[in-house]
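Subject: Sanity check before I submit

Could someone independently write out the structure tokens for this chain? I want to compare against mine line by line before I put it in a report. The sequence has 691 residues.
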Amino acid sequence: MNRRLLLLALFIIAPTLGAWRFGVNANADGFTLEQVMSSPFPSDMIASPRGDKLAWVFDSLGRRNIWIAEAPEFKGHSLTHYERDDGQDITEPVFSSDGAYIAFVRGGPPNSAGEIPNPSSDVKGAKQEVWRVDTKSGALVKIGEGAAPLFAPSGSAVIYHHEDHLWIGSGPGEAAKLFEVRGEVGEAVWSPDGQKLAFVSTRGDHSFIGIYEPKSSSIRFLQSSIDRDITPRWSPDGTRIAFIRLFNVTDTYSADTERIMPWSIRVVNVTTDSGKEIWRSGKTAVDSFSSIFGDNAIQWAAGDRIVFGSEKSGWAHLYSISASGGDAIDLVPGNHEIEDVSWSPDKSFLIVSSNASDIDRRHLWKVNVAGGAPQVLTEGPSIEVHPVLVDGGKRIAFFHGTSNYPLLPYIAPLEVRGAKMLAAGALPSDFPVDKLIEPEQVIFKAADGVEIHGQLFKAKDASVKSPAIVFMHGGPIRQMLLGWHSLYYYHNSYALNQYLASHGFIVLSVNYRAGVGYGRAFREAKRRGARGASEYQDVLAGGMYLRSRDDIDAKKIGLWGGSYGGFLTAMGLARNSEVFAAGVDIHGVHDWSVRLGRGGPGSGPDMIKLARESSPIASVDKWKSPVLLIHGDDDRNVAFNQTVDLARKLRDQGVDFEQLIIPDEVHDLLRHESWLRVYHAAADFFERRLK
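---
Independent answer below. Compare away.
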């Protein structure tokens, strides 16, 4: 049996996995929105330092809980027992050094007014708090208000971020500030021996790497400069720190020029403060520092090497370099991008999730830090993300899904054979597995020749002349895939696209320029967004592609999307109502100039004028098609007044619009009830307007 067939057998045959439960209770003629959105969504999977425990967050119908699975069986069960769809998120779980506890954050961050998300309108209000749970008994202890928990080197005390500083506590009322220092403190990390705490002190236009020593109650800073130093990483022996220096340079914003951010990697002796720069980026846009790597921007590896992320090849890759300097090795060469990373215990290799050889999916690869050809671990019509190594690097946990099975947590030997689900029976019995559509990859070109990828959802029994809908993701730094997505927002979007297709619509999901997955030049496309909305031509090209198909009614093509996708929905209706007959605009940006008008780099008069011209609001006089406007009024990403202002102008123009306003909801819709309400309204709108 070849490798592809082997993996197909691994991930499709139910007895092998011993966990799939098919939709035996689904309606014979289709499925409900409630059914297709009933799968629990996994996130934030972590391993204990000893590799004998796994934990993750499960969101089941809005009820968020931490689940745990322990060696040797790794049979998952719920560790916490929150039972309400109250919109209180659970994030940032972290194990204590002995694996006896997990600290986590419950509740979201404050808005500009200092208000914590309270989408259920609970009369008691809401708080963002750090909690600790015992991994054996499940006993919960509230530590204090804050976020970003980190355990002390030993014991149950938790350090966390609150009021721009680090606090420490073991229980209610015991919290105290760890130390006082100017600026905002973040990115704290203990030395291997637990004697020193490295952190970043951010002070507006510059930042320092600090070292706090509890025994001497002292703080000192490493090689301070006018620049911004970030991401401190300890060497395995604790004698050195590697960090990234972002150089303060003159801003270069214009309609066609990105802000260039040159950067370097420095290695410094923490005792003597002596050290040097071991690597420096070039000065072109492709060399510029990118925040897309997150925690994987730099890590210390085996063999006294440092692994870092860079897009200098035009793609998001990982590079390896000696800690003393020299040539950097591209560990993952080729036209693809790296996302999730998990390290082996000895830091000699890492597991990455990448779209290598399968650009519209994600698979797992093993990469040696010293170089050599990466080894493929999974492939085929499936998606594997968020790898976590356990059991001394002998086993790997990850999230796996396909076009019809949503992502769920699995564990397997390192070579990924004989995978077992970590949460057997988690998928509801009436989830419509056998009724979902396998989306088709489609590729078309925009008017300027840029190649655009999309996913086409079409039911097998679709009519000869079906109505159609173009979907645009948000972000825009996102990529929709040929299967269930690993981000909660787009997990839900995928469910709605499946539901719409089951109701007779042909749906085209467009991966427009400004998104990830297709290289830096695609993501950083010229004149995108407020600089000219160049990505809109990709949406229009999607509409024209649908109009060219014989199976689609060219007069019944709609649009829908949220956030940046809401912006593009409004653009389509404002500029091309003759192409797009209706749209659902969920918390979209409608006037870029309002954002630029707040000040900051690139906010001069010419750019503000261009931003308005690049917005739906500039073409509202041509808007003819009906639209459903949806927005939560506690949105922290897109100001609610973006919808208020657009609605005023549509009303003045006599445009037919409907509205669904959700009091106290935020941008990502924290309640499952809110998602159902929004999606029922969207589906009903398209039924009435396009059929």
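---
OP: Matches mine. For the report I'm noting this point. The longest helix spans residues 672-690.
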